[in-house]
Amino acid sequence: MDVGTYVFIEFPAAVQSLDALQAAAYRLIGAATCQIDKTGDRWVCKLTPVSGSKEAPDTAALKTRFLDLVTDENLRQQIAHRTEGVRNVILSLAFGSLAGSSND
Amino acid sequence: MAGFQTVEAFHPAEGTLELLPFRFERIEKSYLVSNMVGDFIRLSGDELERIVELRMRPGDGLYEKAYAAHLIGGVNQKAKRQILAFRLRSRLAFLRETTPLHIFVVTLRCEHSCPYCQVSRQSTDRSRFDMSEETARRALDVAFESPSARIKIEFQGGEPLLNFPLISTIISLAKSKAAAVNKKVDFVIASNLALLDDTILAFCKENDVLLSTSLDGPADLHNKNRPRPGGNSHELATAGIRRAQAVLGPERVGALMTTTEASLDRVEEIVDEYLRLNLDGIFLRPLSPYGFAIKTKAFRKYGAADWLGFYERGLRYVLEINRRGTHFPEFYATLILKRMLTDRPIGYVDLRSPAGIGLGALVYNYDGKVFASDEGRMLAEMGDRTFELGHVTDSYRSLLLSDKLIGLVDASLTQCAPECSDCVFEAHCGADPVYHHATQADPVGIKPLSEFCARQKGVMRLLLDLLENSPQDAAILRRWGGM
Prior knowledge:
Chain A has two helices and four strands.
């Protein structure tokens, strides 16, 4: 939904993590600000393009960009969650307690 | 009868594949993906999704692609993890050589009056702005406490040759100390060369001293950027370069350029000037936000996009020169290519994480104050002491283990910083807490607003594009990268 120069995008809170929304909002800094509120069982993101910014796209493009960013952040979270264990093993092999056990 | 097993017999059993850590960035309709040690691969959205869901089988092409790129491995496959661990350890091995660079600011006096001067030079009062011998001796004590087996002592200013007697003393003392503790020590004088004479050159030759100078391009551009009485900075610098090349050898003198607004349309002329002087390459550097560069507003006169345009034109021109048979590298690209194409530990102080402040370099100011980086002392000249670690009377250990330094290094780690930790270019980039503190009053910095970040990403995207789409240029870039 577009209201004036704002763009509102809603996500069901049951399936969309706040962390991913916040990470996507961070990546939008410079082009738009993003205010995230919870209304009932939904996250409501209010995007406001930064006036005068060369980075600021039109509202339709802004909405698409934000949705892409959220999709990517969801995927990053999924990858991070699923690889946390092996990542820690590799870091331990490189620098930590397993670094001396390279022949195991 | 003995025979071969079927292809299916070699397929991994269901549930035996695992996803390995990787980062990605959406670029239009495809994805640039990098594994834990920064090897790049491009994937379609469908391919990325199938890899994350482990929907692959040997022989389908994607399995082989993902396996070779270390995006997947076998659940019990220790070798795969070991490879990534060894490579990661190699890439960060520069951390073993703590503080290899020691910068001595032997004077803040200078006879130039450059509007972009980042060290806020002074032109008067010898006693007030020159380092004393006592300070130098104490600084040497600190420098030789660093655990590195090989250290580099770099003399800076102001114009360090205005205090040449102290340089001579420091080199003599350092050589004695190095011999006593079995360390190697290299020396560099960063000078505008205006005061270079036969005595100094003979001294440099005798003591294997490298000379590093500033050359911004052709005479009119250089002299505009670097005014001095007589308006002959370019004439003196080029004469100095030629004399130093003749006496010390061409490989013992290098030059650095700084991009000002006036440079933006003239990159070919700048490169030609370096070629004309038989310099061994060029480092296309942006202006830094310190000292007079801020006071005279020189820093704000162009943005990251302007500089990237300048850089791309310059790099393409340099590549054209190389295609014609002249080996002439661009050093910024070379640095990044070494990171992208090899696992060699590149500890370049401005492009590493953990940051190079203190861990890569210490700066001993003329007044005895010790800073975590050259840019940190530049900020101090502007009244900001954030990167002042202590005094030459402190021990190396207390300077390096100070809460201030540890806090700044810890806060700025790209491995943990917002956006950086997930950035597809992280393995080849670095934390620059001084830059981000200077521009955003925060050592981490908001990366979507960071010109450092925009420049780094822009240069790496350009290099990847050339490596993938321009075979002739790729061959040259691979040579620069040491492959």
